[in-house]
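Re: beginner question about structure tokens

> Can someone show what the tokenized structure looks like for a real chain? I only ever see the sequence side.

Sure, here's an example I had lying around. Input first:
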Amino acid sequence: MGFKCGIVGLPNVGKSTLFNALTRTAAAQAANYPFCTIEPNVGEVAMPEPRLDVLAKIAGSKEIIPTRMNFVDIAGLVRGASKGEGLGNQFLATIRECDAIAYVLRCFENDDITHVEGRIDPIADLETVETELMLADLESLEKRVTNLEKKAKGGDKEAKLTLDLVLRAKALLEDGKPARHTKRAPEEEKAFAMLQLLTALPVLYVCNVNEDDAAKGNTQSQRVEARAKQENAACVIICAQMEAEFAALNDEEQAEFLAAAGLEESGLNRLIHAGYDLLGLQTYFTVGPKEARAWTIHKGDTAPQAAGVIHTDFEKGFIRAETIAYDDFVKFNGETGAKEAGKMRLEGKDYVVREGDVMHFRFSS
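And the corresponding structure tokens:
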């Protein structure tokens, strides 16, 4: 499990440049005109995980397999996208397949790159894109009401529950607020997810700045950060052009590049980590002579659920999990040392997996 994050924004804000850097490909054409991306591009990248290299070295693993992330470069939305303007319908449908949305917002000045609305205002850009998504959601919900009302009157309990959710989300959208703010009980989450609302997806704001502002941002990115804090959303500052240059360098050159720019890690790392936090994801490891591998699960997942990510049979036949904390695995130089130090634990079905656990599953076939 990784996550699929849709990269959205107005034309010419740096979406495709960022996508190219993130996926280290030139699959998305970056050009200075709207709709240069004529069909969604999906790029898969490895989750940056330095702990995996450490584990592999200790265990003498022949292969290192990181977990993978998917990024979807979606063509620039414009006013009227919800009504099919530009390439609206096609790309709104693509967003529905994503786990989260990264709003790329232009926070840089450059007279050579035109803005579709003739001004640099990331908050206005954000509101333009989100308004189109809200209008699409509103239209989707309005189409369902009549049919749900008929079923609910006929005594269909599921339809009644869904109708209640639809009306709550509809009222919020009509008030100009995204569907993710709809109040709902834990037992309603599954039904709410089934509505597939665009504005119900978790949001990450990506402030695209000039190179000089990559380390600390600028007044425009500060406005976005304030908005993100207000909405309890994630926010990352990135210079897409600089990330594109960074992606073409080798490891040694990348380290020098980051130091010169005053950055501790690349925008890719920060974006993926922010996405992980946004979706409540975490990592555990399996380690052996054949391979060292990272696996992605949700925070709060139990040992059987974690085993199920490897194979459904592991979850069904789960017996126990031999578990070592990452720090203990490293401190005692691997599985044998950790066992001798009493740091290997036998965990059962109720064990909630912790970030960085090194696990080996026992199961019956």
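Each token stands for a local structural state, so reading them left to right follows the chain. The two ends are 23 Å apart (CA to CA).
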